[in-house]
Amino acid sequence: MTAHKPAVAGVEGAGVLTERGPGPVRVELVVNRAERAVDIEPRVSLLQALREECGLTGAKRGCDQGTCGACTVWVDGQRVLSCLTLAIACEGREVATVEGLTDETGTGPHPVQAAFVRHDAFQCGYCTPGQLMSAVALLEEGHAHDDAEIGEWMSGNLCRCAAYPNIRAAIREVRDRRRTRA
Ligand code: FES
Ligand code: FES
User: Fold this and answer.
1) Given strand 94-96, what is the order of strands in its sheet?
2) What are the tens digits of pLDDT across the range 64-98?
3) Which ligand is nearest to the CA of 127?
4) Measuring from each residue's beta carbon to the nearest atom of ligand 2, which residues come in under 6 Å?
5) Between the N and C ends of the chain, which has fewer C-beta atoms within 10 Å?
6) CATH code of the domain containing 123
7) Which range is least confidently modeled, 11-15, 20-24, 73-77, 109-113?
8) Residue 39: how many CA atoms within 13 Å on its side-chain side?
9) How far is the CA of 38 from the centre of ligand 1 (A)?
10) β strands within the chain, DSSP E
């Protein structure tokens, strides 16, 4: 089985580092549709900028080396590992975190969040923000046809509490509801 991990954004951002030189630089981010300006060193990861500069602690630091998926966020609608993504490389791009997930009205929890609660799809909850960002994305991507596919496309998000069956059940529920509505 191929492991489908969220991507690493911003390799092209490496060029920006040499242009701006060392030391703190002003980086203009758009996070959950709100503009945020942060003064950070170019080496700062998106995860660090979100948690320590923006006060958005939903994305979690698990391994900090790209293996657990706890830090998963979206950049321009694509899943990325924010621990391996430079914040400076996200300038001018749309960053979305678990704090920005809502229902269609923008006032309640996203249907996948509600399904996670109904299916008890977490225990300690540490991996849950990353699981949610991947689960919503894979439903949008159309990678939830069966359990095998769900498991494959969620394989970059590890859960030490082994809530995998419940996570899959929550994803199935949302998928089936969408099928019924279509
Ligand atoms: Fe980023 Fe583990 S903290 S993959
Ligand atoms: Fe504890 Fe996933 S719910 S690590």
Assistant:
1) 34-40, 25-31, 94-96, 72-75, 78-81
2) 999 999 999 999 999 999 999 999 999 999 999 99
3) 2
4) 122-128, 159-161, 163
5) C
6) 1.10.150.120
7) 11-15
8) 2
9) 22
10) 25-31, 34-40, 72-75, 78-81, 94-96
Phi-psi region of 44 (alpha: psi -120 to 50; beta: other; left: phi over 0): beta
Q: How far apart are CA 46 and CA 90, in angstroms?
A: 8
Question: Per the domain annotation, does 78 fall within a domain?
Answer: yes
Do both 31 and 91 map to the same domain? yes
d(CA 143, CA 114): 20
- Mean pLDDT, to the nearest integer, of 22-45? 95
pTM of the model: 0.90
Most informative mutation of 124, 132, 166 for ligand 2 (most atoms within 8 A of CB): 124
Pocket of ligand 1 (CB under 6 A): 61-64, 66-71, 81, 83
Same domain membership, residue 90 and residue 50: yes
The answer to the question of residue 168 being in a domain is yes
Q: Are residues 123 and 86 in the same domain?
A: no
Q: Kindly state whether residue 127 falls inside one of the protein's structural domains.
A: yes
Q: Please tell me the distance between residue 51's alpha carbon and the centre of ligand 2 in angstroms.
A: 19
Q: Are residues 141 and 91 both part of a single domain?
A: no
Domain span holding position 120 = 111-181
Total domain count, the chain = 2
pLDDT in tens, 126-182: 999 999 999 999 999 999 999 999 999 999 999 999 999 999 999 999 999 999 987
pLDDT tops 80 at residue 18: no
- If one residue of 128, 167, 168 were mutated to test the ligand 2 pocket, choosing by the most ligand atoms within 8 A of its CB, it would be 128
Candidate from 7-21, 92-106, 112-126 with smallest mean pLDDT: 7-21
